Amino acid sequence: MSGRSHEEGLKDLTLLGNQGTQYSFEYAPEVLESVDSLHSNRDYFVKFNCPEFTSLCPITQQPDFATMYISYIPDKKIVESKSLKLYLFSFRNHGDFHEDCVNIIMNDLIKLLDPRYIEVWGKFTPRGGISIDPWCNYGRPGTKYEEMADYRLMNHDLYPEKIDNR
């Protein structure tokens, strides 16, 4: 195989390669795009590390900064990375608590991709002397991925990371 063909999902993309891309300053789940997974016959993780995530406190409107980690096991679809970047950028002026942001991101990606498994972890920088690092996950109900999600949830923080003042 020499590469993905136009018929394998590329014809539906509107953002990748578009030099006139517009950036939304309001929450915009509609910018998310997906392409067909060419490897749905196997399990594999896709992981995104997004170190420039920002949102706003819904009360004070002060900015919150985070590294957002998104990992998933695709089924039939994968997320197109430029659309994911634009989607995450759309949180810039979105006012929500950290816990809400990670769950909104996960819910939007579940709606788009119907993945076998997904987890989203937001590592927010401290504000007021405290950092908040919400983590959520989902495994497709009735499958081994649901069991995996339960296991990872119960064991995700058994070995806490070394905090070095970020």
From TrEMBL:
Catalytic site: 57, 64
One GO BP annotation of this record: tRNA queuosine(34) biosynthetic process
Location of the protein in the cell: Cytoplasm
UniProt binding sites for substrate: 79-81, 98-99
SUPFAM superfamilies linked: Tetrahydrobiopterin biosynthesis enzymes-like (SSF55620)
Gene Ontology CC: cytoplasm
Domain of life of the source: Bacteria
Keyword Transferase appears in the UniProt entry: no
Gene3D superfamilies in UniProt: 3.30.1130.10
A single MF term (Gene Ontology): preQ1 synthase activity
Reaction equations catalysed: 7-aminomethyl-7-carbaguanine + 2 NADP(+) = 7-cyano-7-carbaguanine + 2 NADPH + 3 H(+)
Pathway: tRNA modification; tRNA-queuosine biosynthesis
EC number of this enzyme: 1.7.1.13
Key words, A-Z: Cytoplasm, NADP, Oxidoreductase, Queuosine biosynthesis
Keyword Oxidoreductase tagged: yes
PANTHER family: NADPH-DEPENDENT 7-CYANO-7-DEAZAGUANINE REDUCTASE
Function recorded in the entry: Catalyzes the NADPH-dependent reduction of 7-cyano-7-deazaguanine (preQ0) to 7-aminomethyl-7-deazaguanine (preQ1).
Protein family membership: Belongs to the GTP cyclohydrolase I family. QueF type 1 subfamily.
Protein name stated in the entry: NADPH-dependent 7-cyano-7-deazaguanine reductase
Species annotation: Psychrobacillus lasiicapitis
